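Need tokens for this chain, all 463 residues.
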Amino acid sequence: MASFTVSHICCTSMPLLPLFKMLLFFPFFITIISAAKLTTTNSSFSMSFPLTTHSLSTNATAKMLSSSLMLSSRNTKAPSSSSSSSYNLRSTFKYSNVLIVTLPIGTPPQAQQMILDTGSQLSWIQCHNKKAVKPPPPPPTPSFDPSLSSTFSVLPCTHPLCKPQIPDFTLPTSCDQNRLCHYSYFYADGSYAEGNLVREKLTFAPAHSTPPLILGCATYSSDARGILGINRGRLSFSSQAKINKFSYCVPPRQVQPGPAPTGSFYLGNNPHSTGFKYIPMLTFSQSQRMPNLDPLAYTVAMNGIRIGGKRLNISPAVFRPDAGGSGQTMVDSGSEFTYLVSEAYDKVREEVVRIVGPRMKKEYVYGGMADMCFDGRDAGVEIGRLIGEMVFEFEKGVEIVVPKERVLADVGGGVHCIGIGSSDKLGAASNIIGNFHQQNLWVEFDLTNRRVGFGGADCSRLG
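Here are the structure tokens for all 463 residues:
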């Protein structure tokens, strides 16, 4: 869902970045919130939730939440106020394009499914609107009922966030008939969410919760889930909750019928991080803000692409922001496919055509953005074997290696597509590394040290 007010791509049933998610992406976000601290008592702790890959019709239940929450003491020394407690968030999902996490919102907690999105800032939940004259159809997952939470409050119109012309905050806000702060969020794929800005806490256990965080409480939306916005913006979940580090491991897509694959999500230190390889996170000062740049994205310096062992003739400059901000390369969990600007996409397509051009599906574009597709239920294996592995090269010799078995995505109807789309067709000016190319890979965002780490793993076997 690309946002017209934010720019990003994240989450729809299409291949891509709906909320930069298919969110189109030019998110310039908020400057005002005082960051909250993760509350602990006298021991540091770790937590784990069911993070499963769900089909969009799967219901979230309180049973799911209680069975997935695990709180374990790590030591007897209390963490400092600036530290973040680590916990493992897992959720099952039908891995078609998004990562769904189930979080405990409110007091007492209500299980809410949210799309984990490193490409957007505002987090919002589906709220139950009992008083609506013509309420929208209920979502397939339980919505949040504010009347059941003792820690819920709505931001008034007088709150600074509800005033227009706030630097770095382009989310349209207004004062509704009840003098409460109303917001509207529109994405590039046509999806939307609107409701009130509120304060609410995440309650992991009686003694472990966040202070109230600013969230969107959507009473009207075109998506069944909420969004966990976790980019570098001041309003993001990680910023408000003082999370200094987080990581996730995306399991391989489910190809054959069977149990849904399970991935892992940590807030804080990851016990698997010993072998991670890190690259610097590019950041941009206020004076460097450019029209096509998303300054709050997790931007990295990519150097090149190899296909079947052949390094394509693409200048590293293509993967870095130019004078107008076009060309930045970002890591985005809310985008399904990877997207490349034309200078890089054309070279990739040229090589694919050279190798398997006669097999390519003619005049076919999946989701309006991916046009390297092939017919045949075995095409994923056959074409992948011919193309070979694909490698994204970064600084310091760090690489994301995509094995030939996962070069193509099964998009249904016996069609398989290379998991790369054109940024131009998307309407974006950036290179985006989507979750399709993050399978079986730990991805860690170390906010304190401004770096992104990668580590190979069998993500479906992590407990």
